[in-house]
Structure formats: C-alpha cells, structure tokens
Amino acid sequence: MLHPVQAHIISIGTELTAGLTVDTNAAWLAKRLAAVGFVVDRHVTVSDNQPAISDVIISAAAHADIVLITGGLGPTADDLTREALAGAAERPLVLHRPSFDQLSAYFQKIERAMPDTNRRQAYMPEGADVIDNARGTAPGIRLQIGSTTVFALPGVPSEMRAMFRETVEPELRGRSAGSVIVTGTLRCFGMGEARLGEMIEDLMTPGCGPLVGVTAADAIISVHVTARGANSLEASAAADDTLAVLRDRLGSLIFAEKNETLQQAVATLLIERKNTVATAESCTGGLLAKKLTDVPGSSAYFLGGFVTYADEAKTSQLGISPEAIAQHGAVSEEVAALLAEACRSRLNADFGLATTGIAGPTGGSAEKPVGLVYIAVATKTETVTRRLLTNAELGRDVIRQRSCNAILNLLRRHLISDVSQRV
Questions:
Q1: Cβ-count burial of 177 within 10 angstroms (0-12 exposed, 13-18 middle, 19+ buried)?
Q2: Which of 189, 204, 275, 318 could pair covalently with 342 via S-S, beta carbons 3.0-4.6 A apart?
Q3: How large is the average pLDDT for residues 351-374?
C-alpha cells in the first residue's frame, strides 16, 4: 500500500485573516500538489504576527512531509516569514550575498536607488537554500526542519506560481512515492445537500476506496472524487469506477462534470437541439439573461429578453392584463406562466423563461414572504411552473442566484426529456 505523502499549506497575511483579500494561492497549490501525488490535509491562514507564524510552522513541520508557505517575503516591516521561519528552525538570519547582489542589479536596471527596506529580502535562515524569483524582488526559501521540507514562496500569485512550477514542482515529483492523485467532480442540482448525501453515504466512508466529498453553493451540489494510484492509469481507473457508481445513483440530478456551470450545460443542449430561448424577468432583473449570454456562442440560442420589473412594464411590454395582475398578484404562478408565454410568443422562441418573486429585503408579507419566487418555462404546447421558497436570511443576491439556477435546471430537465422528474 502506498504511503500518502502529507503536505500542509500555510497562507500568511493579515489581509487574508481580516477578509480583505481572498486566498487563491492555497487552492491553486492544493490542486498542483494533488497532481503530483501529495495529500494536502491542512490549510492554515495566519496574520502578520511573528510568534504566531513560527508556531504554525513548528506544528506543520511536526505533522507533514512537505510544508508550503505563501506570503510575508516582501520588504516591509509586516513581512515576517523569514524571521518566523528562522525562529521555528532555531537558526539565525544571515545575509545571502548573491540575493543581495541580484537585488542591487535589479534596481540599477530600472534606474532607481534600492530602498534600505529591500535589503532585508536578502536575509535567509542559516543553511537555507534560495529559490530564484525571476518575476519579483522576493526570493523563495527552501529549508529543512527535521524530516520536513519547508518551501516559502511569495504571496504575489504570478510570482508564486512561476516559482512553484519552475523549481518546487520538479523536486516534489521525485518525492511522491511514485503515487498519483486523480480527482473528478459531478455537479448536481435539484436536491438538498443532506438528502443527496444520504444517497451516497456508503461511498463517503473513510477508507472504503476513493475519497468522496460533497460541497454546496447556491443550491448547486458538487460531489468530488479523489483517487490515489501508483500511476495515472491506476488512479484514473479507481476514480472512474466510483464516478460510474455515482452517475448511476444520481442520474439526471447531474448536470455537468468538472467546473461546468448550469448555463453552460443548458447552452450545450440548446445548441445541439437547435432550440432558442427568450426571457421575461421581474425579481432577477436581467440576471437570467446575463447567465445565458455569459456563454460564448449564445447568439445561436438566445433571442432576447424583457426586464419587466414594474407591473406597468409587464403590461406595456408583454401585454399581461392589469386584471390578471390584480387578481393573482404580480408574484404568482399565474403571472409567471403568462410572462413565459408572452416572451416566447413575442420573440417566436422555442422556450420562454420567466421569473417573478420577492428578493427582499423588503416587500414581503405573511402570505408572500421574502424569498418566494415563481418560475415558468413555456413551449408552444405547454407551460411548466414551479414555486420556490428561499430562506430570506440568505439575502437578496442568493435568492436571485438560486432562482436563476432553478429555472435553468427546469429548462435542462425539459431538454433531456426527463418527464418523470420534470412534471
């Protein structure tokens, strides 16, 4: 049995812990490490605090074979990775003359005097190896702490990625015990995370085979499969076996694999069938039309849309009678159906899509609360409607996003002729 090579990723920066910047480096590194056979079992984010950074490095070195650090290698006083790494390894910082000369040459080349603060970027923990940075002024650091190899890389994504690809990754390929990790993802819509999890619970048991996990965002459930093998063929075969079982169980809940969006999946079906769509939106305010046209080549299927936010616009643009709105309310199954039928007819599309609801945070009532949305898909022969109710506490943006995803999925179900789950 292959011994899994463990890796920890440490992201450094108060801007990350304060939520001012999103950490994209850790996600990128985790994918690259998996591709060369490393299991990343911990991501840690720590502020610009030298004792805290040292503590995290010491802990990581005690548990992982490989530690990757990003950030904190700049020239300013809050860039403390060098000092923290030296403290964790109990080694002094020493001037690395080649790095200093390289920094000096860089500033001479751009005809600027080198600030004194940049000098500190040439200091390294004693015994460390320096990783050249061809794209910036912050050299990387490679240091052995016990049996663990620690790599400190710049926080600037372009610099970090280049340094990893050119220097770190080639070394790691020879240290992964000859193993390879392959991942696969199935993206699902139309069922809650808990209920879907029950359908595949036996596959999620640790140690039963490829690792199966579930994540959720905007009601889209992603099922991830991670398989390890002695080589890519072995790992891919293990992943494919589990993915086949998942496809069989989840069926038409699956709308795509990897990172494809609902609108991309729908676009593929529309283009294959040479079908066209038109939209009429109230609460989503054009978001549905945007999603449909975010896909390159959308002119092949998207004819146009109406944003009929006010009741008067529903009447003047699409001919919805004031009596129908007065009788049923603008937020109703009946008006959603009329909107879908009208936009389809006006633009002579194969499908008319409509949304009407209360996105909040105001405008709700006991009868029609914030988060209530009606969607409709109309063809020449039938109109299908759905009532959605999203938790108002999730906010306006989530309500609008989920409404768009729901109607795209309703159209997708129609396009794949899954009548048993469509009606």
A1: middle
A2: 318
A3: 96
